[in-house]
Amino acid sequence: MYKILKKDGNAKRAEFTTVHGKIQTPVFMNVATVAAIKGGVSTEDLEGIDTQVVLSNTYHLHLRPGDDVVYKMGGLHKFMSCNKPILTDSGGFQVFSLAKTRRIKEEGVYFHSHIDGHKLFMGPEESMRIQSHLGSTIAMAFDECPSAKAEHEYVQMSVDRTTRWLERCKKEMDRLNGLEYTVNKNQMLFGINQGAIFDDIRIEHAKRISELDLDGYAVGGLAVGESHEEMYHVLETTVPYLPENKPTYLMGVGTPANILEAVERGVDFFDCVYPSRNGRHGHLYTNKGHINLLNARYELDDSPIEEGCGCPACRRYSKAYIRHLLKSGEMLGLRLCVLHNLYFYNHMMIEIRDAIEKGEYSAYKKRKLDGFLEYDSIPVNDGYNIARNWRKG
Ligand SMILES: [Zn+2]
């Protein structure tokens, strides 16, 4: 199912075959939290911006419209008319970050809905059942994401429980995939490595979950307030203990620079709300660094956001026009900015794959990072302030 086509240092160029088609990795998954990419981006639009995988949110879809509704509509693929692979997160992160009050027990988590405050419970079995209803291509295990600042003792206790939860997820997923009316009987399960910034816990956990022979493995609990150096350090120490012949997914990361660094450390799946969220604020990614389209200097600029960019915004419209749309609060302005940013990320992944195939990854990475510094109005790593809160929106 997962075939490594080429290695360049630790960077992997691979092909992951799923029931909804082949995924070329490294890949950036485009975030469609409530089964839609914010900014008025349709499933049809994804064809024009090189999207390979869509990521939707279990917690949000469970609350609205309800996973039973999606199930009755034939699953997420049919519901949103999407034939691409879809990954659903487990809802765990949202239960821990969004829910107002929560009690963590061995069986799962008791909490209140962030929408109307009503009482809810989610444990490994519930998360698997919801994701089975959604019928995503890849389901994520239900885990606890301890704070980056949590004490060693708490993190160890939490990770041990996450491992027991993972075993329950696997058992439940196997059962659900065997039922007659399951939407996607080939639903895959990715486990999640946790351990905050403690090397010993991360490594031990990576070894334990590797034994479960899952379809893929994620490194979770990063981009939650630790420094970039700490994040890269965790990847360097942990990824070597995850199975090389399975996909490695770095959850919720990150800036273009973060992705370039993580690919070099063996990661091949990514997701992040930066391109869509920043796009909605007129913050655009280019090969020379960020630009803020609301800046007055673009008022009479008739060039595209980026010369040579093949996205639907740059092929037709000028900075001046899109800036005007943003300032007028026109939906089209947000849409064009989000399309450009997603295209930028998706297209960078194409370049990354190409560079690994040619065995030129480190030279490519350096060239790309150096290029980002040309526009110094917003430093290339500024994403971090936004990173701390990105999952909350
Ligand atoms: Zn563009």
UniProtKB/TrEMBL annotation:
Single Gene Ontology BP annotation: tRNA queuosine(34) biosynthetic process
TM region positions: none
Domain named tRNA-guanine(15) transglycosylase-like: residues: 10-369
Lipoprotein keyword on record: no
Binding positions for substrate per the UniProt entry: 89-93, 143, 194, 221
Residues involved in Zn(2+) binding: 309, 311, 314, 340
Record InterPro entries: ArchSynthase1/Queuine_TRR (IPR050076), TGT (IPR004803), TGT-like_sf (IPR036511), tRNA_ribo_trans-like (IPR002616)
Cofactor(s) named in the record: Zn(2+)
Domain of life: Bacteria
GO molecular function terms noted in the UniProt entry: metal ion binding; tRNA-guanosine(34) queuine transglycosylase activity
Segments for region (RNA binding): 252-258
Entry function: Catalyzes the base-exchange of a guanine (G) residue with the queuine precursor 7-aminomethyl-7-deazaguanine (PreQ1) at position 34 (anticodon wobble position) in tRNAs with GU(N) anticodons (tRNA-Asp, -Asn, -His and -Tyr). Catalysis occurs through a double-displacement mechanism. The nucleophile active site attacks the C1' of nucleotide 34 to detach the guanine base from the RNA, forming a covalent enzyme-RNA intermediate. The proton acceptor active site deprotonates the incoming PreQ1, allowing a nucleophilic attack on the C1' of the ribose to form the product.
Subunit organization: Homodimer. Within each dimer, one monomer is responsible for RNA recognition and catalysis, while the other monomer binds to the replacement base PreQ1.
UniProt xrefs under PANTHER family: QUEUINE TRNA-RIBOSYLTRANSFERASE
Full protein name: Queuine tRNA-ribosyltransferase
Biological source species: Butyrivibrio hungatei DSM 14810
Lineage per the UniProt record: Bacteria, Bacillati, Bacillota, Clostridia, Lachnospirales
